[in-house]
């Protein structure tokens, strides 16, 4: 064990020294990459994530999360093998994007509302892009086609739900978190009692809760920004030093095997490190390439999330006992599923593509912060309600199948 730790530390030291040497050799490239990373953080991530960070902290303090947990428990446990509180995390994760799902999961783990296996299942499928970024930045900003938002959303969020169904088999021998059975009465009564109990246990005044929520959210959003800038710089200097050529050749070979254009190798390589850079490269790929291939790669990158997002997740979960391996495995499978969904359903989904979208708010690139704030409420609200609709629909299907199974002579 000691030898393994020494080898890992030596390898990490070698990587850090190599990055420093590349920065010294290419200072201009590093500076430009850092400025692009800061721009991405300020124009896209800060307005999209910071309000949700604050809101999630306040909702936990008021016990609203516990209310949804009790309400959704009868549906989430049989479908995803996750306590009902995971339904709220799912909706918030889909509406606010990464890394909100991981942040909420780590808080639930701290409060002993989920165990390790349940937390790993939850993080695996609630880590997704927010709809504002998917529509405003990727579909409109990078691909210059708002009508692509529908197929990207189906591939990305549909893939997330499939991952959730697959992850229910993760840790099959682990015991579930005990259900609250102290109070009697209907589910609504128990949900309100759970919310009231959580609020009493929290005990903070409204002013204290708000100020602490803002301070904690500011700290987290600066960590997110720092990671985005760091990976943007690392990717740029390693590319300038030709270190990435080996990975580039490997990606090119894989794309040729799958039948996708090798010209998209740069987009995949960028997306492995930073989702925004990868999605932008996919949207700016040569117009001669098939649009379906470019969108499939875009969906792959969105679902993988990039090492920048992975680093954010690891940072948020560092104080828990949740493991990284289940998460990275789920990310890779999700990326493959999303790309496959785009390619399989590309033709059937063309009926939903219109030359002009009347339902999407306009995105103004000259005022990105205000545009994101205008887009946030209607789009995220729709996804939030859609997530709950998916939970109810899956539970109805599960109940129907269980009923049919019992009618034909099953014992369970």
Structure, described:
The protein is an all-alpha fold and 412 residues long. It has a domain at 45-222 and 309-407. It is built from 17 helices and no strands. The chain has helices spanning 2-25, 27-62, 64-80, 85-96, 100-110, 116-126, 131-142, 149-167, 187-202, 206-240, 245-258, 265-273, 275-283, 291-304, 306-316, 324-345, 368-407. Helix 2 (27-62) packs antiparallel against helix 10 (206-240) and helix 4 (85-96) runs antiparallel to helix 5. The radius of gyration is 22 Å and the shape is globular. The termini are far apart. Mean pLDDT is 81; it is low at 355-359.
Main traits of this protein?
412 residues, 0% strand, membrane, mainly alpha, transmembrane helix
Tell me the radius of gyration. 22 Å
The proportion of strand residues reads: under 5%
Secondary-structure element order, as H and E?
Answer: HHHHHHHHHHHHHHHHH
Count the DSSP helices: 17
Task: Give me the count of strands.
Answer: 0
The largest pleated sheet is described as: none
Query: Structural class of the secondary structure composition?
Result: mainly alpha
Low-pLDDT runs: 355-359
Give the rounded overall mean pLDDT. 81
- The residue fraction in helices comes out at over 70%
CA-based shape:
globular
Distance between the termini: 45 Å
